[in-house]
UniProtKB/TrEMBL annotation:
GO BP terms in the entry: carbohydrate metabolic process; peptidoglycan turnover
The keyword Isomerase is annotated on this UniProt entry: no
Record domain Glycoside hydrolase family 3 N-terminal: where: 35-320
Domain of life assignment: Bacteria
Name of the protein: Beta-N-acetylhexosaminidase
A molecular function (GO) term: beta-N-acetylhexosaminidase activity
Span of the signal peptide: none
Known EC number: 3.2.1.52
Family, similarity comment: Belongs to the glycosyl hydrolase 3 family.
A Pfam family it matches: Glyco_hydro_3
Length: 472
């Protein structure tokens, strides 16, 4: 390989954020980092405990100058606490409280934990304005449905993370909140006029840009008025014209995971990578699926098809981000006292709870989104019997018989999106009006129960706040 070919390959590899299985870095990742690989994205399967993550990131840094990223939104989407649930409430809870100082403190605490583990880029906050109640992928990840509220809390989150030298990655540009489809599975469409896009979807991103957000993540959504039927991730109109020229953003643009079906089922992984770079992205998150051979094919495709000037431009932006990483003093992790305090402020009670008598807790299981993954959720109520049931398989009469003479507590998650959950809850509440219903998603649908508790998220902190209400 000639000197120029090696230089071109290094530029192409420098755009990639790869993933790998396990809690230690495989040899191929370390070898690629030595040869200029841009960095890695960590997932729940890479995380054991903070000490292990710090050791892992240390080994990555010994091999190169990687951008080390993950999704740590707090709430339902967590990677550091993937196996136990997040100690921080997510955006919906913070939006319900609507205290920007609290949001700043929560994100600063999250950032300090990430920095102590050696992570320098957090793929957060979610700046989507969640205007579709049945949005299957955003929901409690959004601060809410009001544009101004989302904008001010996005700014607070960005400043909180970046105050401890962890770069924010504001997502999902130009807005994923009005969709009714998951881009992991297909290409969602945001069919609005450009005026609506500017007034609603784009306002939080404009605010984040003004607040100095170091990176912005693309959305695999089509906006017919802007991108036609092309996902924004692959659209020069979205990334080069709108984001760069019109909004004046010159930070790092990161693609959402390119292994999602919205990309792989349309143009393929390597084709999507090259097209995203050509459209204006600077770093490409490949997602958890692609392995070593896939990475080699992606690098080859980028080197063969993307103009070197575009790769040099991307490299310069990433180099500026790395320089910023080194400009501050890494903090130590702060003792988490803010997470539960924030969740307590967010929880809402309608009606009145009764003293508990040998409680039966019935959790209605609903499938997690791919973004959330198998993060544990539910109630940990001391001295209670807890059963988890699939709502379309549960027998209301059996539950009622089992709960005879006992306190009945039913826990749901986004019941408004699941007909079987609403039907079962209605049957139980009709027979037992003293039932307490706890909604751990968005409180869109509310049954006529004696007590209704809305937590605005299913993180461990949200569950603890609900338990406190039940046992007060």
């Amino acid at each position: 390989m000639s000197q120029s070919d090696r230089g071109l390959r290094r530029l192409a590899a420098g755009t990639l954020l790869v993933a790998f299985q396990g809690t230690t870095a495989p040899d191929w990742v370390l070898r690629e980092l030595e040869q200029g690989l841009g960095g890695v994205t960590l997932f729940g399967f890479n995380v054991g405990n903070p000490a292990q993550v710090a050791e892992l990131t240390g080994s990555l840094r010994a091999a190169g100058e990687p951008v080390i990223s993950l999704d740590e939104e707090g709430g339902d989407v967590t990677r550091l606490a993937y196996h136990v649930g997040s100690p921080y409430p997510g955006n919906a809870a913070l939006g319900a409280v609507d205290d920007v100082e609290l949001t700043h403190r929560v994100y600063r605490a999250i950032g300090s934990e990430l920095a102590a583990c050696g992570i320098n880029l957090d793929m957060a906050p979610d700046a989507d304005v969640n205007t579709a109640d049945d949005n299957p992928v955003i929901g409690t990840r959004s601060f809410g449905s009001d544009t101004a509220l989302v904008a001010r809390h996005t700014v607070a989150a960005v400043r909180g993370l970046q105050s401890v030298n962890v770069a924010a990655c504001v997502k999902h540009f130009p807005g994923h909140g009005a969709t009714r489809m998951d881009s992991h599975l297909a290409i969602p469409v945001v069919d609005v006029t450009m005026d609506v896009l500017y007034e609603r979807e784009l306002a939080p991103f404009q605010a984040a840009i003004q607040a100095g957000a170091k990176s912005i993540m693309t959305a695999h959504v089509a906006v017919p008025a802007l991108t036609g039927d092309t996902p924004a991730t692959l659209s020069a109109a979205a990334l080069s014209v709108l984001l760069r020229q019109e909004l004046g953003y010159d930070g790092v643009v990161v693609s959402d995971a390119l292994d999602m079906h919205a990309i792989t089922k349309s143009v393929g992984l390597a084709g999507g990578a090259a097209r995203s770079l050509a459209a204006g992205a600077d770093m490409l998150c490949l997602g958890p699926v692609p392995g070593y051979d896939d990475v080699q094919r992606v690098i080859a495709e980028i080197a063969a098809t993307v103009p070197v000037e575009r790769l040099e431009e991307a490299a310069a932006r990433v180099a500026a981000l790395r320089e910023w990483f080194g400009s501050g003093t890494a903090p130590t992790a702060e003792l988490n006292v803010i997470g539960l305090a924030a969740a307590r402020r967010a929880v809402r009670l309608t009606g009145a709870t009764n003293p508990l008598t040998n409680p039966l807790v019935v959790e209605l299981d609903t499938p997690p989104t791919i973004a959330v993954g198998d993060v544990p959720w539910g109630l940990e109520l001391p001295e209670a019997e807890t059963v988890r049931l699939k709502p379309d398989e549960a027998d209301a009469l059996e539950i009622l018989e089992r709960a005879r003479g006992r306190s009945l507590i039913v826990v749901v998650k986004d019941a408004h999106r699941h007909t079987a959950s609403r039907r079962l809850v209605t049957m139980l509440v009709t027979a037992r009006p003293d039932t307490t219903v706890i909604e751990m998603g968005l409180p869109v649908w509310q049954p006529d129960s004696a007590a209704y508790i809305a937590t605005y998220g299913a993180a461990r902190a949200n569950a603890m706040a609900a338990v406190e209400l039940l046992t007060a």
